[in-house]
Amino acid sequence: MTNRARLQRKLFVMLGVIVLMAYSCARSGGVTLQAGDDGGQVELVEGQTFVVSLEGNPTTGYTWEAVEYDQHILRQVGEPRFTPESSDVGAPGEQRLRFEAIGTGRTTLRLVYHRPWEEAEPERTFSVEVVVR
Predict the structure, then answer these.
(1) Three-class secondary structure assignment of 24-72
(2) What average pLDDT is seen over the chain?
(3) Phi-psi region of 29 (alpha: psi -120 to 50; beta: other; left: phi over 0)
(4) Would 85 disulfide with which of 18, 78, 93, 112, CB 3.0-4.6 Å?
């Protein structure tokens, strides 16, 4: 094998590794949406997961809940998780909801911050257009 053929082979292998790493990173997640993303759009690939992280305080009875999305395109993964900003009792913090893109298409993901047992308008809302390719 010539030096040129060896170099081409190495470059081809390296390119393959780079493509596989990029695909793996895209599928594994790494996307976190926050309050500033409200009203925006996110593009994902099928199989990719993402997190919506919003300020909240479940000790007051308020919680973020997903109320609208196409269940053929997105699936909520697990229960919302809360991390307080301090160890003080009743401290606010970040509530995180995790989703997985399970089908291609476009859907609006709408979240509300409310007390689930009250029949009142939510305190806050969050929505984002999700495009899965």
Answers:
(1) HHHHHCCEEECHHHCCCEEEECCCCEEEEEEEECHHHCCEEEEEECCCC
(2) 87
(3) left
(4) 93
86 in any annotated domain: yes
**Domain count across the chain:** 1
Extract the tokens encoding 73. Answer: 């395109």
CATH number at 84 reads: 2.60.40.2020
DSSP single-letter state for residue 116: T
CB neighbours of residue 96 within 10 Å: 17
Q: What is the pLDDT of residues 42-69, one digit of tens each?
A: 999 999 999 999 999 999 999 999 999 9
Pairing of strands 124-132, 41-44: parallel
CB–CB of 132/103 below 8 Å?
Answer: yes
Please indicate, yes or no, if residue 73 is contained in any of the structural domains.
yes
